[in-house]
Amino acid sequence: MTSVSTNLDPAIFPPQYSYPPFFTRQPNSTTWASQRLLWATFILQYCRARKLWKAQLSEVLESELFWNRALGRRLKPADAVEILSWMSKEGQIEWETTNTTTTATATDKSAFYIYWRRVDEWANIIYDWIDSTGQKNAVLTLYEISEGDLSVSQEFHGMDPHLVRKSLEVLMKRGVAQIFSINDEFGVKFF
């Protein structure tokens, strides 16, 4: 098996990224299950390293995520969608839906949110930050949480508003936060 040295960051790009067979769906179902898991792990690592919260399918199919230009190999779009759909079932991504149902149809699969941490983990991280910065009983906007000066050093800084809201909903269900909505703006008070 040949590989090509691509000078890629090994913390992001796994060794198999440099092997052409990684970009070809394996016909054996057991091998494909293993390959799919390798792809899912790589996608999560990549998105975490790049702080990628939401992605357009058309854009990532053309990016280094699914296309190793040094090898001249890319994952077929149908295989990428199959991997992402499996990740959705595993709770690792969420398709952005344009309809009113909670299930994405084939035509909806154009954008997705990436959960390189589970929503409840993000909720814990945000709440710990609120506690450590003395912001309990204060009302904060979603922008202040994800883009504010106090959150610059936090892993959740820059988080997509959809993911912030989902994390805050977890805290609200726990009874440690209350979400307010005024003129399409969201605020949250922590207890």
Automatic annotation (TrEMBL):
<comment type="similarity">
    <text>Belongs to the VPS25 family.</text>
</comment>
<dbReference type="InterPro" id="IPR008570">
    <property type="entry name" value="ESCRT-II_cplx_Vps25-sub"/>
</dbReference>
<dbReference type="InterPro" id="IPR036390">
    <property type="entry name" value="WH_DNA-bd_sf"/>
</dbReference>
<dbReference type="GO" id="GO:0016236">
    <property type="term" value="P:macroautophagy"/>
</dbReference>
<keyword id="KW-0813">Transport</keyword>
<dbReference type="GO" id="GO:0042803">
    <property type="term" value="F:protein homodimerization activity"/>
</dbReference>
<dbReference type="InterPro" id="IPR036388">
    <property type="entry name" value="WH-like_DNA-bd_sf"/>
</dbReference>
<dbReference type="Pfam" id="PF05871">
    <property type="entry name" value="ESCRT-II"/>
</dbReference>
<dbReference type="GO" id="GO:0043328">
    <property type="term" value="P:protein transport to vacuole involved in ubiquitin-dependent protein catabolic process via the multivesicular body sorting pathway"/>
</dbReference>
<keyword id="KW-0653">Protein transport</keyword>
<dbReference type="GO" id="GO:0000814">
    <property type="term" value="C:ESCRT II complex"/>
</dbReference>
<dbReference type="GO" id="GO:0005198">
    <property type="term" value="F:structural molecule activity"/>
</dbReference>
<protein>
    <recommendedName>
        <fullName>ESCRT-II complex subunit VPS25</fullName>
    </recommendedName>
</protein>
<dbReference type="InterPro" id="IPR014041">
    <property type="entry name" value="ESCRT-II_cplx_Vps25-sub_N"/>
</dbReference>
